[in-house]
Amino acid sequence: MYEVELKLQTSHDSLRETLADHGADHVDSRSQTDTYYDAPHREFAETDEALRIRHEQPAEGDAVTKLTYKGPLVEAESKTREEHETVVADETALEGVLSGLGFEPAATVEKDREFYTLDGYTITLDRVRGLGEFIEIEQETTAESVDTVREGAVDLLSALGLDPSEQIRNSYLGLLLHNDT
Amino acid sequence: MYEVELKLQTSHDSLRETLADHGADHVDSRSQTDTYYDAPHREFAETDEALRIRHEQPAEGDAVTKLTYKGPLVEAESKTREEHETVVADETALEGVLSGLGFEPAATVEKDREFYTLDGYTITLDRVRGLGEFIEIEQETTAESVDTVREGAVDLLSALGLDPSEQIRNSYLGLLLHNDT
After folding, report:
1. Residue A142 in this model has a pLDDT that exceeds 90
2. Which helix (H) or strand (E) holds B38?
3. Which helix (H) or strand (E) holds A100?
4. Does the interface predicted TM-score (ipTM) exceed 0.85?
5. Contact criterion met (CB < 8 Å) for B100 and A39
6. Is residue A142 helix, strand or coil?
7. Is A36 a catalytic residue?
8. A96: nearest CA in chain B?
9. Which one in A22, A42, B56, B149 has a CA-CA gap of 20 to 30 Å to B156?
10. What pTM was estimated for this model as a whole?
11. Chain B, 88-107: which have a CB under 8 Å from a chain A CB?
């Protein structure tokens, strides 16, 4: 599966009301602390990969730890990547595994997220420590449908009163590391 | 924590009875399929490390996947290593993470294990595909107690009618890769 994802920086103030007007469902909220790792054998900034431990606190219930690998872009326009992710039971042990292999924590991204669904897309309102407020729109799809799904995301952003041309292609990690936006 | 572990090759035929005579408790049985990985940036055979995905099927219940890193020996006599291990929810995703990072499956070890406890030690009867039958005796301990715990393990092996001098220091992986014992 491929992940189509578009992102804009925008205040959340009027956006929640606009989403409600369009019939979006608020399905979940959670906070995430993401630790990105440097590799001992590759320069991830150059290979455009990422290795991450995500510590996730849902609105209700216990925190969950996830290990995620993101491969290089396969479709630059929509930031489409191949991705592998699994829940891991013991975060401290996972940190020990990565440390033993020579991977080192490089940067941390903390954010509060609100998730909505609309027309088959997941729309996320993110408040990122040190960066501000953002909207993300995404959908998982097959390789053949990437273009169609991306066009639908652009149309949906326009319908919500946002300007798709203001799309940010950098990750939050990239924005934090090169805080020039 | 450090893991003190001694291992001998020996038939299990009379051993179960001997263990029962000494008051050992049979606490668990399970089968394990271990896939060991090669690293893209280190020769694990030279650095004496290991990275493993363990697929474990208990006598009852669902299979469990574990990710394990074993560091180099810190105490050669008893094969004491630093170790980090965590349960992982999605084995296929974990394989994808390792593959994305350039780690490759190198060898597989399959074994059926019976676990006993006796005098604070865990005693394991292993039947390893392609190698035969073994006994392992182990205990987790602090750095300060490694010598005492190892001496206790040697005494216990003698009490069970085994010859501690026949200790095998190779891992099952090592025995399978260099099948000359």
Report:
1. no
2. strand B25-38
3. helix A91-100
4. no
5. no
6. coil
7. yes
8. B84
9. B56
10. 0.78
11. 88-91, 93-97, 100-102
